[in-house]
Write a structure and sequence with these properties.
The complex is a heterodimer of chains A (320) and B (367). With 320 residues, chain A is mainly alpha-helical. Helices cover 70% and strands 3% of the residues of chain A. Chain A has a two-stranded antiparallel ribbon with strand order 1-2. In chain A, helix 1 runs parallel beside helix 12, helix 2 packs across helix 11 and helix 3 packs across helix 10. With 367 residues, chain B is mostly helical. In chain B, strands 1-2 form a two-stranded antiparallel ribbon. In chain B, helix 4 crosses helix 11, helix 8 packs across helix 9 and helix 12 runs parallel beside helix 14. Chain B is globular, with a radius of gyration of 24 Å. Classes of the chains: A mainly alpha (320), B mainly alpha (367).
């Protein structure tokens, strides 16, 4: 949190356009896809698991939906429903592997990731779909305003959806009994089982939800760029994971908040954007992300070890 | 179905004896299952693919395996200690880039054989040093800050990749001296040098893990870091050693990479990162740490490579091969999980048929 404020202040002072409304809205729009996936990943992390396959899930859902829309000309609601259910289905496959076959979540999801992504590349042949129907490509603007300098700032569909997903996840995880059960399961699965929680069902809920958000993110991404590229979302999984972890979601489960994860995304977003505005080469960005992860996690762990005030990463033993 | 404990997936049967039994072969059932799978695949491919078992297939096999093999070895050591090193590919690429850069910038067209050899040695020394530094830094971060290794190595991966990309602008570096390429593509008794290199490193790492105090300490940390600390093992120093070892394996991998690709780039072999974990787990390395052997890993790698070259000759797409790798992993873990249940079921059938037969006999006796 402090890191974000400091970075924001420094960038606001040095890069003049940084704190302008259009820039901030633009940032939100760009990072909405990752933020939505991060919400799903957050639920899985809280439940004590980890998922590497969600980017592949998003790609599969996006591509299949695009195929259905272009080749078979299915109407919008049907296409969206199909995309989302593919996401849920792939999430449930993960949950079934983890619960019934008892594979560690990281291994199971690495395996499903390689399977679903490779199959996608095989069947699509790596070809993109450019001719998405109009209902998919058209920008939906909810609110629009003009800043003093004449730039347009528009609240678009991705931003609204991101807010809705974040709000829903927050309310669900903190205000409902199911959410509290997921926290409990992540904190101590054995204890959760013994007080009568249905661990298997909770796994399906967590991974299914991640599948759903991933599919939603996939559909949105195609909406934003106006085409469906099979390998467009590769390698986002580690970025989203680091954002979630930067925001304080523990890799060992039971700990983390929605605002924290959103702040993690915001941190990455403002770093990239700020550096761009400062004219720093985009090649440099990776270095900054790496350094940020190392510094901020180290600081968090060391400070929590000292004071035991933030229980953010303290629960994570060195070798989970 | 009964509810086994969640966090650890082993059937908890006999305490210490069971543990020792597991420590030895790495995975329940030993390597017999993997070896059987390998032989089965070999037989199947030989039967269905013409010319599968030929000298040329074998040789291409020996050229393709070392890079993935060395990278997997670099992944296995941290895995056994209960950690993970996501930065192996980044380290390897950066090391290769540095070595090419040194060779290219120092060797003039007219420099003699001795100078060239000296510069190649210098480049290798510099690469070695780079990996040493990266290993020390990663190990120190993991050991002394107590941050989860996934996070630390995610950070170092990003950092190292970033530096490589920043310095090269994402371009590939080529221009290796002829002496290096000639030496690296040479063979000994028909066996490629790179393959021998991998075998050497594998034997070395296997011996270290199995027969040294350091290796035992690694496995102990992987099973229970706290208990290891209380048994007077300096866990922090061992952890630094683990990541140094992993990075130094990356140095060898960088040499092999230069030998196979003849160029270096920041984004080579990135797709191998998850495959190395997959191979390790397939070879019976416990992803939670503590258990695993180099032999198992090598068997698993051979399986993956046989599948890949076999399907390749069939004309199956590379993408499909990766999908099959994933499916094989899930299948193997499934069999492992189902084993206790299968044994129970089989024993039950055996007992009931036997009991049935026994009662029949008794009835016949009564007559």
């Amino acid at each position: 949190m402090a890191v974000i404020l400091v970075v924001g202040a420094v960038l606001g002072a040095t890069a003049r356009d940084f704190l302008s409304l259009p820039n901030i809205i633009d940032l939100l729009d760009t990072y909405s896809v990752q933020a939505i996936m991060a919400m799903g990943l957050f639920v899985v992390l809280v439940s004590g698991g980890i998922d590497i396959s969600f980017a592949a899930t998003a790609s599969v859902a996006q591509y299949v939906a695009a195929k259905l829309a272009t080749q078979f000309g299915l109407p919008a609601p049907l296409v969206i429903a199909a995309g989302l259910s593919i996401g849920i289905l792939l999430g449930c496959v993960n949950a079934a592997l983890i619960h019934y076959v008892r594979i560690t979540s990281i291994i199971a999801t690495i395996a499903t990731m390689s399977i679903s992504f490779s199959l996608l590349m095989y069947f699509s042949g790596g070809r993109s779909i450019y001719s998405l129907p109009d209902w998919w490509m058209d920008r939906i603007v909810f609110y629009q305003t003009e800043s003093a300098s004449g730039d347009l700032a528009r609240i678009t569909l991705p931003i609204v959806l991101m807010a809705a997903v974040a709000l829903f996840t927050w309310a669900w995880m903190t205000r409902s009994s199911l959410g509290r059960q997921l926290y409990a399961m992540g904190g101590n699965p054995e204890a959760a089982r013994r007080i009568g929680m249905h661990i298997g069902r909770l796994q399906f809920v967590a991974y299914g939800y991640l599948g759903l958000t991933a599919a939603l993110a996939g559909l949105l991404q195609a909406h934003r760029v106006g085409e469906s590229v099979p390998n467009a979302m590769v390698n986002t999984e580690l970025t989203v994971l680091s954002a979630a972890v930067l925001g304080g979601a523990s890799l060992t489960g039971g700990i983390g908040t929605v605002p924290g994860v959103l702040l993690g995304i915001v941190l990455l977003a403002i770093l990239q954007n700020g550096l761009n505005l400062l004219g720093v080469s985009s090649y440099f960005f990776q270095i900054v992300i790496g350094a940020t992860i190392l510094i901020s996690t180290s600081i968090t762990v060391i400070s929590s070890r000292r004071g035991r005030r933030h229980r953010i990463l303290a629960g994570a033993p060195t070798h989970g | 179905m009964a509810d086994p404990p969640l966090s650890r997936n082993y059937p908890d049967k006999g305490g210490l004896a069971h543990l020792m039994a597991r420590l030895r072969p790495g995975l329940p059932g030993g390597h017999a299952g993997l070896a059987a799978l390998l032989i089965l695949l070999l037989v199947a491919f030989t039967a269905f693919v013409p010319n599968f078992l030929s000298a040329s297939t074998l040789q291409s096999f020996m050229y393709q395996l070392p890079l993935l093999g060395l990278l997997s070895l670099a992944m296995v050591v941290p895995l056994i200690s209960g950690g993970l090193n996501l930065a192996i590919i980044a380290t390897t690429n950066q090391c290769a880039l540095l070595m090419v850069w040194v060779m290219r910038s120092m060797i003039a067209a007219d420099s003699g054989g001795a100078t060239t050899l000296g510069i190649i040695c210098l480049a290798m020394a510099v690469g070695f040093l780079l990996c040493l530094v990266i290993g020390f830094a990663t190990g120190a971060l993991v050991a002394y800050t107590g941050v989860h290794p996934i996070l630390v190595t995610l950070g170092t991966k990003s950092l190292i990749d970033g530096i490589s990309i920043y310095l090269t602008r994402g371009m590939a570096l080529s221009g290796l001296p002829e002496m290096f390429t000639r030496a690296s593509s040479s063979t000994l008794f028909g066996i490629p040098l790179v393959f021998l290199l991998m075998i050497g490193v594998a034997v070395l790492i296997g011996t270290i893990l199995r027969h040294t105090v350091f290796g035992v300490a690694c496995a102990m940390i992987g099973s229970n870091p706290e208990a290891t600390r209380y048994s007077a093992v300096d866990t922090r120093r061992v952890l630094v050693g683990v990541y140094v070892m992993s990075s130094l394996t990356c140095f060898v991998a960088a040499l092999v990479m230069l030998a196979t690709f003849n160029t270096a780039s920041a984004d080579y072999a990135q797709s191998y990162l998850l495959v190395t974990i997959l191979a390790a787990v397939l070879g019976g390395v416990d992803p939670f740490g503590g258990f695993g052997t180099v032999t198992g890993l090598m068997l698993a790698l051979s399986i993956l490579q046989v599948i890949s070259s076999g399907f390749n000759q069939f004309g199956v797409s590379n993408y499909l091969t990766v999908a099959i790798w994933g499916a094989i992993l899930i299948f193997v873990v499934m069999v492992q999980t189902a084993r206790p249940y299968l044994v129970d079921v089989l024993a039950g059938i055996w007992r009931s048929t036997n009991g049935h037969g026994g009662s029949l006999r008794r009835r016949q006796d009564e007559r």
